[in-house]
Amino acid sequence: MMADSEARKSVLSDPRREWSFSKAINETVNGSHEFVIKGYSLAKGMGPGKYLASEIFSVGGYDWAIYFYPDGKNPEESPGYVSVFIALVSDGADVRALFELTLLDQSGKGKDKVHSHFGRGLETGPYTLKYKGSMWGYKRFFKRQSLETSDFLKDDCLSMRCTVGVVQTRTEGPKPYVSTIPPSNMDRDLKELLDSGIGSDITFKVGEHCFKAHKLVLAARSSVFEAQFYGTDADRNLDEIEMEDVEPSIFTAMLKFIYSDELPDTHEILGFGLDRLEHLLVAADRFGLDRLKILCEAKLGEEITTDTVATTLALAEQHNCTQLKTVCLKFAAAPGNLAVVMQSEGFRYLEQGHASLMSELLETIAEVDEEPTLSRKRSTSTNIDLNFNHSIDGQNGDSRRLQRRL
């Protein structure tokens, strides 16, 4: 006896022996579906075995449905009761699941009627559905006479919630060593490359300021720079460019975007005022930085006001910013905004040089005017004149006064 015990100890403590480990994990994948029955009284009298079915819903890779029997599932076992069942409606064999049926209290008191497998010990374990069409539920879910005088029925409407927990088993073995992978810091590294000027091969002179950069990085991000540095007619020895029509702060912001792919903070980088963001959009369009242009577009669209919408609209038209243009037109045409917009300096600029935009604004006003809005009262409408000092339809020098009734 002593010899056997010593032998077992030697086997267990043998450092040369290889050991393995695994575990089986049983868990449920849960999902819920709410089923509302409107016109309950019209469903009465369908007859035993006749049911109302919910839409099919999926939980745990299987499809399910709720069946509500207003006159009971069968006359022998459920006379005077409503029956409720949950059915497996997709193909499956021996699907093990937990269920919960809740009849919702519509009085606001929270006294729901709950039948649940969850949260309690089960002598026989989860319920097993053998095949497609298998059901779990209650033939005597609720006495019909009591149901019709309860808080569960309100405005001839019943509401119930079904929760299904499909049992799934998975096996886990020992996990290999996994090192912690830090987040990407490429944007930081590239910004440091820009700030340090290491390896730079091009200098931009912007006013009194000089900016060192890297041709390959610029060309990879901008088709305009690619053509300038590596196109057919490019000067391969070019090492300095004098930039015109762009401010140093705007050029700084653009370079930081090229190296980091992030829109600079409008206050920290550009200074206060959305006009700086407008200048950045112009630069993005000039150098083919489509993502930067869209980011500027989105930010400007969030910040438009009755004072700025007209000038922003003109900017959007000039630089083909379709989404921003649409936002501006709809904002300006809104009944509560139009009268104020027409008093702005930007609107006078539109009148003087943007006949096509004025025409589009009229079309947008008409669309807004025609939208069916119950709260709008036509009897309190206002007459607003839109003055054009140039032709809208090609009749040169012929000023026209168009009137819209809003």
TrEMBL record:
Biological function: May act as a substrate-specific adapter of an E3 ubiquitin-protein ligase complex (CUL3-RBX1-BTB) which mediates the ubiquitination and subsequent proteasomal degradation of target proteins.
Domain BTB span(s) in chain numbering: 200-267
Biochemical pathway: Protein modification; protein ubiquitination
All residue ranges annotated as the MATH domain in the record: 30-164
GO biological process, one term: protein ubiquitination
UniProt record similarity statement: Belongs to the Tdpoz family.
Pfam families in the record: BACK_BPM_SPOP, BTB, MATH_2
Stored CDD domains: BACK_AtBPM-like (cd14736), BTB_POZ_BPM_plant (cd18280), MATH (cd00121)
Listed Polar residues bias regions: 387-397
Protein name listed in UniProt: Uncharacterized protein
Region (Disordered): 387-406
InterPro entries attached to this UniProt entry: BACK_BPM_SPOP (IPR056423), BPM1-6 (IPR045005), BPM_C (IPR034090), BTB/POZ_dom (IPR000210), MATH/TRAF_dom (IPR002083), SKP1/BTB/POZ_sf (IPR011333), TRAF-like (IPR008974)
